[in-house]
Design goal:
single chain, about 100 residues, alpha+beta, Arc Repressor Mutant, subunit A, 3 strands, about 15% strand, globular
């Protein structure tokens, strides 16, 4: 089983977070997780092919925005809200409030 890389809290960089959230598809993924809680990768119905979705999930994970948990053949995504708030207080809230309106 492949081990997925998740940066430690202290290694999350602001530039990586902002870059990951600058894409509308990735932002919509984060908004959906924020609204509905943990989601499986198959839950998202976005206008991109599966390989592109995988790229978006990896970008969010490697930036430290989401945590990916494997359960059997499924992958479940949750927001790393505590880690992001500890590193950059108020950033996630500031980004998600206008996006979820």
């Amino acid at each position: 089983m492949k081990i997925l890389f998740h940066p430690n809290r202290e290694d999350i960089e602001l530039t990586s977070v902002l870059y990951a959230l600058s894409d509308p598809i990735r932002l919509s993924i984060v908004v959906a997780i924020d609204k509905h809680g943990e989601q499986s990768c198959g839950h998202f119905d976005l206008p991109v092919v599966k390989s592109t979705m995988t790229h978006h999930f990896r970008t969010l994970r490697e930036a430290g925005i989401v945590n990916v948990r494997k359960q059997g053949t499924q992958h479940f995504l949750t927001l790393r809200t505590e880690d992001l708030d500890a590193r950059f207080p108020g950033l996630l809230t500031a980004i998600l409030q206008p996006a979820s309106v």
